[in-house]
Specification:
The protein has 297 residues and is an alpha+beta fold. The protein contains seven helices and eleven strands. The radius of gyration is 18 Å and the shape is globular.
Length: 297
Amino acid sequence: MSRVDVDVELLDRTPRVATSFATGVATGPGRPGARGELPARRLVLPGVRQDLPRLAGFCEVTGGLLADTVPATWLHVLTFPLQVRLMSARDFPFPMLGMVHVGNRMRVHRPVRVSEELTLSTWAELLAPHRKGSTVDLVGEVRVADELVWEGRSTYLVRGDTPPGATAEEVPTEVGAAARAAGPGRQVALWRLPADLGRSYARVAGDANPIHLSKLSAKAFGFPRAIAHGMWTHARALAAVQPRLPQRYAVSATFVKPILLPSTVVLRTGGPGLDDLSVTDREGSRMHLSMQVDGPL
């Protein structure tokens, strides 16, 4: 996942997501969209000490156990402010409003301990045509000293904006048709999600997108009620199978349909392994998340 043909922007503190989001909204109009180019910059933040109370809050909200090692989705949370900072900058071609997180992939090269000092980095790549517009990947890395311990890739969809001259095509992360075709699967867990789940997750994860916070703010973006964060669903599903995860693994998730809050959802499995997991509505007729775990690497 690494790139060597980019400039490095060294940061001295974690970017404030709220500030970056406000900048991105204010500077969004007039950006070139798919006609533009992705920034040739990697943001790097060294010397990161993990916030134990915040990690404890993250584990509580996502159903995980606070332990000596951290969840893979927590490392995504740590790199997320760098993603937002990069997308909010004026040289990022797409306006932030309207970008939809449709897929996420992570590789855990070894367990990461709470006490370890981390170096975080992120960059953008793979601007690609899609049958609904364009997709772009925001890539993250976590290192301990020079050791690569975690990699993440978030795929965002920009609707209706396809690169000039490109033939739009469907990306593999979009829907998980094979999982749907296999049926709803066996119920593993049932979760009742409160109306304020989006606000609870935003407090520990830093993702305060208004579509997650209240019915009123979500309606401004076309949703009848607030929706759960896709990464909350991903983190909750991964926490549910945490005891079965190997030391090294890769996990991919596809965000299919949003979960309106409040709601009741079900974690299902289509087989004995971890390669066919899904989160659906109670009846199993509407898929929200498709997730597959591969390991060891």
